[in-house]
Amino acid sequence: MGIMVNSKKESIIEEIIFEADEFRLKGYLHLPPVTTPPFVIGCHGLFSDKNSPKQIELAQHCNRLNMAYFRFDHRGCGESKASFEAVTSLDARCADLKAAANMLKARDDLGDQMGLFGSSMGGSVCLAVAGDLAADAVVTWAAPIRSADLVRPHADPAAGPDIPFKKSLFDISKPLASLSNILIFHSEADETVPLPHAEEIYERVSEPKKLVVFSLSDHRMSQPVHQQAFVREASFWFQACLKPDIK
Fold this sequence. Notes:
Number of strands: 9
Strand order of the largest sheet: 1-2-3-5-4-6-7-8-9
Order of helices and strands: EEEEHEHHEHEEHEH
CATH architecture: 3-Layer(aba) Sandwich
Oligomer: single chain
Number of helices: 6
Strand content: 15-25%
Low-confidence stretches: 1-9, 153-164
Helix content: 25-40%
Number of domains: 1
Distance between the termini: 30 Å
Mean pLDDT: 90
Structural class: alpha/beta
């Protein structure tokens, strides 16, 4: 475990190793300079990792609003070493997120309010376990509601779309009716996860909820202008739901 200090933003970035099942996972906790802040956990997409630009930017914005942010590598990704194809499934990633949440809830320097952010498959993971974790807010980007609708046409993960393997089919529609405080981002130009997935999620979850549709963004939100709009609205959503101390 190590600590890095960001003097410009007066935040502390703490390196954390924790366990999920028999796997050792690695992440970074961005801590703002306040006492017991609420926290947000970020879940990356299938072929991504904790260092995605939108997660780092969202972590910084959350810190500025006095919220902590934890970004981590799921098993088999980034610095959480394991055989990617052998360990990757929705259930496995749900277990990773639950382990991260339990680890953070046990800390005495964090508050009780918790938000979840998930990108693509990470969004599906967050929605699948938000009820079990009693999450106070959820933000998703390009989350599929069911994997059977999706096709992975490329064998190369670097070239192929960020969608779940056919061998790990899932459908997260059932728990959605019990969820609220959900902000959903999607692009109508997304050819990997079509817009109707977001529209169905929005219809199934309860108020308060919001659907934001970008017209030209790609599945990975690679354009800076889209990332900036996303980060701004997502961080304010978490602020409204988690109610950090702004003194």
